[in-house]
Amino acid sequence: MLDAFVRPDRGALFVVSGPSGVGKSTLLKRAFEVIPGLTFSISATTRAPRRGEVDGKDYHFLTDEQFAQRLAQGAFLEHATVYGRSYGTLRDPVERALSEGHSILLDIDVQGARSVRDTLPEAVLIMIAPPTVDALEARLRARGTDDDQVIQGRMRQVADQLGAVGEYDYVVVNDDLHVAHASLQAVLLGELCRVSRHAGRVATIQRNLSVHS
Known about the structure:
Elements lengths: L12 E5 L6 H11 L3 E3 L3 E2 L14 E2 L2 H9 L3 E7 L2 E6 H9 L3 E5 L2 H10 L4 E6 L3 H11 L4 H15 L7 E4 L3 H16 L6 H13 L2
Parallel strand pairs: 1-7, 1-8, 2-7, 3-4, 8-9
Antiparallel strand pairs: 3-6, 5-6
Helix pairs in contact: 1-7, 5-6
């Protein structure tokens, strides 16, 4: 249905955040299936490639020294250290993709979102939120994949994530999954249809009007 969607002259940079268990993965998987020209950013990392992973496709694999050098050069939109390994979003590939009309989505936490917006204020920030904090805890327990200590740790992080919702452009509440799908996709498509992203199409419309006036 969206095959005829007109790609913008400059793509959009979407940043999606939300606490663990809120359902981001399910919502994003569907969004990638239906929104034309939307892709994940390829992150850089200092961890070793796993079997089958390809440099430049799955990750940009860097040594600790390479990562530190690029960090000192200001090459990252955002970065973080997880279990002793560094991860980050390189600015140049994102800028290049946006300039070609591709739209990039980053699934990162609040701190990363702040860093991205500091560097690229045009970024569109979207928070995925649960209907209530109690409902989120119930979802985490229902999954049966984490023990009580892990769940309590995840719940302690909820305040940091949801407490920043006022800094975001949009909030999508994942209560009813069908409604949440529709809401997220509406946000993505609405941003991609902004007149400011379609200078070429606007000029074409105006030329056509002048010919028939």
